[in-house]
Amino acid sequence: MNTIRLLYLVSNLGCSGPTNQLYNLIYHLDPDRFKASLVTLSPEPSLSSWNKFRDLRLKIHSLGLSRVSGVMLNKVYLHRLLNKFCPDIIHSQGIRSDYLNSQLKNYPSRVATQRNNPLIDYPLLYGKLSGQLMANFHLKLLKRIPQVITCSQSISEANNHLGLKSTFISNGIRHKPDNRTSKKEEKLKLRIELGLPASGKLFVWSGPFIPRKMPEIAIKTFNLLQTNSDIVLCLLGDGPLHESCIRASHSKRIIFKGHVNNVDKYLEAADGFISTSRSEGMPNSVLESLAHGVPVILSDIPSHKEILSYSNKAGVLYPLRDAKKLAEII
After folding, report:
1. Which residues are CB-contacts of 148 (< 8 A; sequence separation ≥ 6)?
2. Which neighbouring-strand residues pair with 274?
3. pLDDT (tens digit, 9 = 90+) per residue, 252-300?
4. C-alpha to C-alpha distance for 207 and 296, rounded to whole angstroms
5. Terminal Cα distance for the chain, rounded
6. The model's pTM
């Protein structure tokens, strides 16, 4: 059987859900059937998974160009690498990588993975006008790539309304033997180890503190709970809204831990997981929570509904932005 040469094209390997999903894809490749190469466009951010990928069986190369210089030089440098690697399939994710992918018409077997809805996410990230223009541009690029794979059925359905043909393969997570529900005594030991309250119900919120994730709703919710309540919220992550959320917190039951590398431990110690997002592709954090047997309370957006459609016993939905209703459900 001939070996299939794959080339993955991404902006960088910054720690994020899409990067984790890319790692899973490459990790599970059969080395007897596939030979993988990975090309990044930009220098790595401070929080990077570069070393993690370097341990995999693949060639990894960075063009190391800034966004400005990359506009002119990425295409030139990439063609040099393509001539060297001679890939059978090119697989991109992200707007900059998809732009280059859309230009490579000499390579018929090209794939793009779409992990979000640009029309919702980009205006929140880049501002209303700039975000709308970027979203329209990205969708136009995707239409020039032969095969578009989305990470959820809900994104594919949104694409259909925009005239973009796509197929969905839902995000998954790597199953680990220790992904199981912790016993009460194990939870207690973990909470002490993590510096969390030993008693009461513990809910975890995890993700970047950005407008799309709406962490302020979780803060507002726990501010509404009775002062004598033994319910605790632990927020994991960092980002532009982190400081404002800390200032908005008026309860000792709200704990901020910042960015951590052991989210699994917090999930093992938790009684529930909360997602307040206004838009998602197929969220890793929710899938990880369920893998640990932790029930979830999710905003009623399409991707969350899609997850609970597999099992309505896994969690409950609440109306997006409705902190009062979320508090009632908790």
Report:
1. 111, 112, 113, 114, 142, 159, 164, 165, 166, 167
2. 297
3. 889 999 999 999 999 999 999 999 999 999 999 999 999 999 999 999 9
4. 15
5. 55
6. 0.89
